[in-house]
Amino acid sequence: MLVNTPEKKEVSNILNERHIKILDILNGYKETDVKFLSEKLYTIPKTIRYDIKNLNYYLKKYKLPIIEDNKYLRFQKGFNLESFLKNMEVKDYKFSERERTEFIVIRILFNTQEKLTTEKLAFELGVSELTIKKDLKILREEIKDRELALQFDKKRGFLVTGDEEKIRQKQLKYYVDYNIGYSRNNTEAIPDFLKFEIKKILTDYRKNIDTEDLYKYVENLSGSLDRIVSNEAHEVLVLYIMILVKRLQAGSHTEEKPVLNEYLLMTKEYEVISNSINELESKYKISIHKNEVLKIVDYLLGSHTYNFDYSFYENWVETEILVRKIINEVDKYTEVEITKDELLFEGLLNHIKPTIYRIKNNIFFPGLVLEEIINTEKELLEIVGKSLADLENYIGCKISNIETALFTVHFKLAIERAKEKQVKIYRILLVCSTGYATSNLLSQQLSAEYNIEIADLIPYYKVFDYDLSDIDLIISTIDIEEGIIKKNINIIKVGVVLSDSDRENLRNTGVNKRMSRIKLTEILEILNSSENFQNMDNLGDSLINRFGGKILDDREDDGTAVKERLSSFLTLGNIMVSDKKTDWIETVNTAGGILLKNGYINEGYIKNIIGNINKNGVYMVLKNEFILLHAEKQNNVFKTGIAFLRKKFPVEFPGKYMVRNILAISCHSKEELSGSFEDILKLSENTGFLEELEDVRDSEAVFCLIKKYTEI
């Protein structure tokens, strides 16, 4: 009797960003090989061969030429990447976290009709609602930095809210990055499939706008003003007016900015646009108020104000970047923090546009007296003048002393505001669990970045009996229970390597950043407090303790020592990938076992790690499921080393910490590992590394990936 044997199904994995890059490379070369692709994409040949098989499955599915995999890789016949992307279905592609968040924010920002919900976005991207919720959480934090917010409306679904001007600028940026036909470097990193999907959204958003008519409108404005407008500026003006119309149709208006508007009202551009604005109002059935007219004037001025050697869009729409650069440059030479002064930022942002207009059109302030600033603030005037070099390059003109003095007034006021907010130098008690090497790294970071004095660095068990009479603040790497500290004192918990949230907590407590220059009076204060100068080591320790990284401690070397990086200690033999489900104790034994097997430690070191966690809890968990395991060396460490264990399934450590990336550390000399800790922190926060780590299957791939991201 014959039995029908089912045909073996071809196995395939969903496509990802790396697959598209392979196609792009092959599309540009007549032929190449696996070794070339693995080097170019920072992976191993085995992974590339697996990817080629996977790609051929989808090429057959879309009825396109497949890739021949003989000695060289080549397409069987003519291949067109654009055809492949058009044939692709969203369900066939695995969006990375970065790609999903990019898609979601654009989808929400340009949505005009549908109610966008978590369920709807999950369906469109082919992922779970839980994944979308995580993406939305990331997006909320990202756009919050731009003074925008992501909110949910019961009728309209997800919306981007906040400053209307910033919303329009963000929309305009996406149109410029994706739709205007001139090259832009910042789109190169965006995968082509994502680009295709986003272009569909942008095209749909403007389908009800007659862009040809808007082109003619802008041409008429230029003609009336007798101004030359570049093709790029012309495109941006049309796009901005299109966005303005769409936003007004949705009932969204910009806020008035009196300082800038007063200047714009006096320009010829305002007169010309005011006389023609009824054309837009009539065609699109909208009412364009004076403040909206002023926004068009603002953009039109930029179209013929900047030097044509530079991009109009980059220099006008993103003037904020230029202002931030100027502030940061001046901040290097001030004794107080001015980069966070929003009054300074807003003042300069509104000041810079009329300044450019005045300079380009040879307009001078009649009767403006600034001799006092020029004569009494010579040092600050010189600093501000140097900081304006980028602005001079942008506009192609030299900035006069009078104009520089006007900028200096803004900075003088900001410095005075900052001085009023100055607080005392905090005396810090630094508390760790065990392991002075990593705690010493934290001490160095704090001393280098903040205007503090570290009174002592102690293990956790000593904090109960410590004399806190002259301590202002406790910084700890582990939780300290309320009530066990006798003195009423603030306690801040931080990571062994400072994160952005740690820095935010320190700022909120009132701890000031360390100045770029050291005051002579502070040095004299320390010298005066020293009983004598016979013990130079003690004097040196006092200076280092007070000023941290601002002083190079070259007493033991010539000052040219270079930090050893992670790659010096994390060798291929110290990496393991495991798909076995284990508890935290077995996981510690496995990670420590790598160091044990390779001769870095003895068994007592692993027992100490487990004992520390049982006694003090987990205290070295970094972002994105990373944990550092170590203990005091005692007599259990033979040499410094690092082992990396990558788990397929998360392991729950005490405190409900879910971990997949375990680094076991043996520290023979505390100075050796500071560079490695910097690399580990960067890896734990690097989205690109984390996304690629999801696809690795063996230790060699992990080794190549770590090398790729730590040797950039």
What is shown here, in short?
With 712 residues, the protein is an alpha/beta fold. It has 31 helices and 12 strands. The strands form 4 sheets. A 4-stranded parallel sheet has the order 6-5-7-8. It has a 4-stranded mixed sheet with strand order 9-11-12-10.
Describe the structure in your own words.
- Keywords: Activator, Repeat, Transcription, Transcription regulation, Transferase.
- It holds the Pfam family Mga.
- By secondary structure, this protein is α/β, with parallel strands linked by helices.
- The chain folds into six domains: 75 residues, Winged helix-like DNA-binding domain superfamily/Winged helix DNA-binding domain (Arc Repressor Mutant, subunit A, Orthogonal Bundle); 111 residues, Arc Repressor Mutant, subunit A, CATH 1.10.10; 106 residues, no CATH class; 99 residues, Orthogonal Bundle (PTS-regulatory domain, PRD), CATH 1.10.1790; 84 residues, 3-Layer(aba) Sandwich (Rossmann fold), CATH 3.40.50.2300; 145 residues, 3-Layer(aba) Sandwich (Mannitol-specific EII, Chain A).
- Helices cover 51% and strands 10% of the residues.
- It contains 31 helices and twelve strands.
- Helix 5 packs across helix 7 and helix 20 packs across helix 22.
- The longest helix is centred in the middle third of the chain and has 20 residues.
